[in-house]
Specification:
The complex is a heterodimer. Chain A is mainly α. Chain A has 8 helices and no strands. Classes of the chains: A mainly alpha, B alpha/beta. At the A-B interface, helix 5 and helix 6 of A face helix 3, strand 6 and helix 4 of B. Chain A: It is found in: Cell inner membrane; Cell membrane.
Chain lengths: 230, 254
């Protein structure tokens, strides 16, 4: 049965698959991961602040986001964000934000919940004495966080943060539900058009595999380089 | 430093006035009162769990108190308008477990507070840092990381880091308790030198040899209370309380 396969379709569609699909996937992954880590760190600090007015909303947010399927959140934001925009700007009709912006906002908010749990563990793992020492030389809370606690937490948590980013990289393929074309979407389109489903999906799987294994290897190397000498 | 100035010499640098502290229902400090005068070295000792580490940490508000008041150089530690970071910057503290910042090199450990808190220029902070490292005998290690140094070396760096802020008083919280025995001496030597230079010091320690050498007064604590607050000679030669006598006989036996 394998004699019927024609992998030539892969070759001819390469420019489209990578030039359009992969560029989209990588852009969305990079932007959402950056935004998610920044927002997640802020949420983690809120949860650890010991101030109920900050900790409780952060806790609810994280638990809420983590209990929803990502596809649902993508849909939800796609239809909701225009109305939130309208409400915030006071415009007369829903603001059109475009599918990409909507997806970016969704992934950033969704991933922030996961990144915040990683950062929370990272911050909690830093001995209390470090905070005491930083405060004892006169650093403010903000300075203590920025110069002493977070740099150590980031270093310790780097493997987990990047592993979560690799998961995000795979999850971005869900944008097909709002008609965006990522790498998998592009492969899917070509597959349907040319009737080469097996070839295209095998190729797509191979590409994801290669990228993820390469990224994991790089994460391990990076981890060794930035590790704190103890 | 002019020890002749009559106003300065009699003025308490640290005044601890009838303070109490609870962890939930457990009282860990009970009506403690003592002071440290400018230029004085006060050793705080007592059995473990007696509250001595907690007491010293209340001085720069690392531990809050529920009753009483503490002033440092006339400034109320618990007072509403007090700028705590500013006050802490003037009070050097050395911890049992060194607490150097492991992600920063030795020289960066010494520069952080100078640059961020005192606003010193980098070159200036760097020069002062190197000078202090020289003083504790570690000039050659400025670009290493804390994890590459021995415990004794790390504690000497920690002392240098505290000194880099030009503190008016130094607090030591069991500075040699976490050290291997052969490293205790090198840290005590730095502290003795500091005391002889006239630094005002409050030291929680079991090192009675250190107390005998440089302490002016000894504060003995047990079960959250200050049981004895005496001059060094009185404390070692004729301790009044039974608890202090027992403690001394135990600690001096070996």
């Amino acid at each position: 049965m394998f004699t019927d396969f024609d992998f030539g379709v892969v070759l001819t569609s390469l420019p489209y698959l990578f030039g359009t699909g992969m560029v989209f996937t990588l852009t969305l992954t990079a932007l959402a991961a950056s935004g998610g880590i920044i927002l997640g760190t802020i949420i983690a600090m809120m949860r650890l602040s010991g101030i109920t007015a900050l900790a409780l909303p952060a806790k609810i947010y994280v638990n809420f986001m983590r209990s929803l399927p990502l596809v649902l959140v993508i849909f939800w934001f796609y239809f909701l964000v225009p109305y939130i925009g309208q409400w915030m700007t006071g415009a007369s009709r829903p603001i059109s934000v475009g599918a990409f912006t909507s997806a970016l906002v969704t992934f950033t908010l969704f991933e922030a919940a996961f990144f915040s749990e990683i950062m929370r563990a990272g911050i909690q793992a830093i001995p209390k004495g470090q905070t005491a020492a930083a405060q004892a030389i006169g650093l403010t809370y903000g300075q203590t966080m920025r110069t002493v606690i977070l740099p150590q937490a980031f270093r310790n948590m780097l493997p987990l943060l990047l592993t979560q980013t690799i998961v995000l990289f795979q999850d971005t393929s869900l944008v097909y539900v709002i008609s965006l074309t990522d790498f998998l979407g592009a492969a899917s389109k070509v597959a349907q058009r040319d009737g080469r489903l097996v070839e295209m999906y095998l190729f797509a799987a191979a590409v994801y595999l290669v990228i993820c294994i390469t990224a994991s290897t790089l994460v391990r190397r990076l981890q060794r380089r930035v590790a704190i000498i103890r | 430093m002019s020890a002749i100035d009559p106003q300065a010499s009699g003025k308490p640098m640290i005044a601890i006035d009838n303070i109490s502290k609870w962890y939930g229902p457990v009282q860990v400090l009970n009506g403690c009162t003592t002071q440290v005068t400018k230029g004085e070295v006060v050793v705080v000792c007592g059995p473990s769990g007696s509250g001595k580490s907690t007491l010293i940490k209340t001085v720069n508000a690392l531990e809050p108190i529920q009753k009483g008041a503490i002033t440092v150089d006339g400034i109320g530690v618990q007072a509403k308008g007090t700028n705590l970071p500013k006050l802490r910057a003037r009070v050097g503290m050395v911890f049992q477990h060194f607490e150097l910042f492991p992600h920063l090199s030795i020289i960066d450990n010494l520069m952080l507070g100078q640059c961020k808190v005192l606003g010193r220029a980098k070159e200036d902070a760097h020069d002062r840092g190197l000078k202090l490292l020289g003083r504790v005998g570690l000039s050659a290690h400025s670009h290493k990381y804390p994890g590459q140094l021995s415990g004794g070396q790390q504690q000497r760096v920690a002392i240098a880091r505290a000194l880099s802020m030009n503190p008016i008083v130094m607090l030591f919280d069991e500075p040699t308790s976490a050290l291997d025995p052969e490293m205790v001496g090198e840290v005590l030597d730095v502290m003795i030198e500091l005391a002889r230079e006239g630094m005002t010091m409050m030291v929680v320690t079991h090192e009675m040899g250190f107390a005998r050498k440089v302490a002016n007064r000894v504060v003995f604590m047990d079960r959250g209370e200050i049981v004895e607050d005496a001059t060094k000679d009185d404390f070692f030669d004729k301790p009044r309380s039974e608890r202090a006598q027992t403690f001394l006989s135990k600690i001096l036996a070996h």
